[in-house]
Amino acid sequence: MTARGLSPVSTEAIWRLPATVCRITGFLGERAAGLLLERAIASTGDRLKPSLVRDRELAPDLRKSRSCPDFQAPELLAAIDDVREALEHTLGVDCRYTEPSYGLNVHNDGDYYGPHQDTSAAYAPRRLLTFVYYLHRTPRPFGGGELRVFDAALPLHTETTGAWEERTWRDWEPEHDSIVFFLPTAWHEVRPVVCPGRQHGDSRFAINGWLCAPDPAHRGGEECR
C-alpha cells in the first residue's frame, strides 16, 4: 500500500483510539466507604447469586463471580450526582434525566469476567454511562482483579474486529473507595482474582452500574440491567 509515491505502510503500524476513563479516588471518604464495605460484607447467603451474562444466563467460561442485584447504596448515587456535570464534560455524554441501575458484585479466588461490552440488543440505547465503585479491606487481601479497559487500537493489517492479543489496553487497580466511569461501548474485563484465604470478607467488592436513559415504554418499570 502506498500513498503519493511514499514508502509502503508497515504491516506493524498501529492506529489507536484510547478509551476514555474517568477515575476518582477517595470518592466517598473514609467513614462512608467503611460503612458501605460493612454492608457489602454482610451481603451473604441467599442474597448472593452466581453472576449472569446478559442478566439471564450462566456462562462460567466468560464470567465467574457472585452478585447481589438488590444491594442499596443511596450515598453512592448521591456522590455520583454531585460529579455528573464534570463527567458529562469529560466523557462527552449527556446524563441529565437518567435512571440508575446497579448491583453488588463479589469476586473471590479464581473469579473473573472476560472481555465484554455493557451493551445488548435490549439495553444498548439506554445505558449511557458505566460506573464501577470498589470496596475492600485494607491492606488489600487479594491480588489481581484489575479492570482492563481495551482501546480501539488495531494493527492496520487486521480486519476491523482484530484479535484480542493485538489490542492495547490499560489496567486500573481496584483501589478501595475509588470509582471509574467509562462509556458502555468500551470493551473491558475483570482480570482473575487471587485470594488465597478464600474468605468472603477478603473479596474484591464492586458496585457496578449504569446511568440509563428513561425507557418511555416502561415508565418507572424495568431497569436497564
How would you portray this structure in words?
The chain is an alpha+beta fold. The chain has a single domain, classed as q2cbj1_9rhob like domain (Jelly Rolls), CATH 2.60.120.620. The protein is 13% helix and 31% strand. The protein contains three helices and 16 strands. A seven-stranded antiparallel β-sheet has the order 2-13-8-16-6-5-3. The chain has a five-stranded antiparallel β-sheet with strand order 4-7-14-10-12, with no helix packed on it. It has a two-stranded antiparallel ribbon with strand order 1-11. The chain is globular, with a radius of gyration of 19 Å. The N and C termini lie far apart (45 Å). The mean pLDDT is 87.
Tell me about the largest β-sheet.
Answer: 7 strands, antiparallel
The CATH homologous superfamily is called q2cbj1_9rhob like domain
Number of domains: 1
Spatial shape:
globular
Unreliable stretches (pLDDT < 50, length at least 5) are none
Structural class from helices and strands? alpha+beta
Per CATH, which architecture?
Sandwich
Radius of gyration: 19 Å
Distance between termini?
Answer: 45 Å
Helical region count? 3
Portion of residues in beta strands equals 25-35%
Helix fraction?
10-25%
* The first-level CATH class name: Mainly Beta
Total count of strands:
16
Q: How confident overall, as mean pLDDT?
A: 87
Strand order of the largest sheet: 2-13-8-16-6-5-3
Tell me the CATH topology.
Jelly Rolls
What string, H for helix and E for strand, traces the elements in order? EEHEEEHHEEEEEEEEEEE
Keywords: Dioxygenase, Iron, Metal-binding, Oxidoreductase, Vitamin C
Cofactor: L-ascorbate
GO molecular function: dioxygenase activity; iron ion binding; L-ascorbic acid binding; oxidoreductase activity, acting on paired donors, with incorporation or reduction of molecular oxygen
Protein name: Fe2OG dioxygenase domain-containing protein
